[in-house]
Design brief:
single chain, alpha/beta, Rossmann fold, 2 domains, 7-stranded parallel sheet, 11% strand
Length: 285
């Protein structure tokens, strides 16, 4: 018996530029989490979804976020309509990268990345000039919310990605303040790899009473999908660069993202790998 395929993105009521971007990304069939979340999220419902890493949850919230902006576009100065909060710089950068791909066929949707370790002044300028979608870490976002440059009174969609980790990493108070300041009449989507007391607390404080609970995890002991391979190399500090170069050379036909602990480290490794190893690498940071 043939296994039933998940629905195609074309079956959803989403804009043509979004479908065009998905096609360019090589995506046509929805994953389980996308099939469960997208119809309800696109209708403006509050969502609490538990899904493993690698399940496609990022697109499950990015597509509705883009559609919120499309429905509210006008010829005036852009206003912030959607905020996506990630627990770490690395995850925020990853989400922002996918977002840029999704909106690549729109010429009237703006976005910005608000994370620590970057110029606060430049971020303030972006927010003051107006952006439709903000991807941020909690601490830096709350910093900007306490300034007059950032007008967030029009926010109609809030996404909390890896919500349990936001609390785990010590941003509980910042997140509470952010939620309190945002408009109450908004759509909220909460995603996490596992369900916990933290997510229950967030449901109480951040969500409407009528919320859709979605769990695509059959095995809650595993936070990643079965098809996702993970590995690591244990080596002395002086051999790390050697192993990184070796792994990048081996993976040149694949998409690879490398995260470092600081902006200076990003700049150093980018310069070294492009200048001395002849690798084609883009830099974000």
């Amino acid at each position: 018996m043939n296994e039933k395929l998940n629905p195609n993105f074309k079956e959803l009521n989403i804009s043509k530029p979004t479908l065009k971007a998905l096609k360019k990304m090589g995506l046509s069939q929805m994953t389980d989490i996308q099939t469960a979340v997208l119809p309800k999220a696109l209708s403006g419902d509050d969502i609490v979804a538990t899904a493993k890493t690698g399940s496609g949850k990022t697109l499950a919230f990015l597509i509705p976020v883009v559609e919120v902006v499309v429905r509210n576009l006008n010829d005036q100065i852009p206003v912030t309509l959607c905020i996506i909060i990630s627990p770490t710089r690395e995850l925020a950068i990853q989400t922002y990268t996918v977002l840029k791909d999704i909106i690549s066929f729109y010429n009237n949707i703006s976005s910005t990345l608000i994370i620590g370790g970057e110029s606060r002044k430049k971020q303030s300028e972006h927010l003051f000039n107006g952006v439709h979608i903000v991807v941020a870490t909690p601490g830096r976002l709350f910093d900007h919310m306490r300034t007059k440059e950032f007008d967030y009174k029009n926010v109609s969609c809030l996404v909390l990605d890896e919500a349990d980790k936001i609390y785990q990493y010590g941003f509980e108070e910042d997140l509470k303040q952010i939620i309190t300041r945002l408009p109450k009449d908004r759509q909220t989507m909460l995603f996490s790899a596992t369900k916990s007391e933290t997510t229950e607390a967030l449901i109480e404080s951040a969500m409407k009473e009528d919320v859709h609970i979605i769990n695509t995890n059959e095995d809650n002991d595993k936070a990643t999908v079965d098809g996702l391979k993970q590995g690591y190399v244990v080596c002395e500090t002086e051999y790390r660069l050697h192993w990184l170069h070796k792994m990048l050379k081996k993976s040149q036909k694949q998409k690879v993202m490398v995260f470092f602990s600081s902006c200076k480290s990003v700049v150093f490794h980018h310069e070294f790998l492009t200048r001395y190893c002849n690798l084609d690498i883009n830099i974000i940071g």
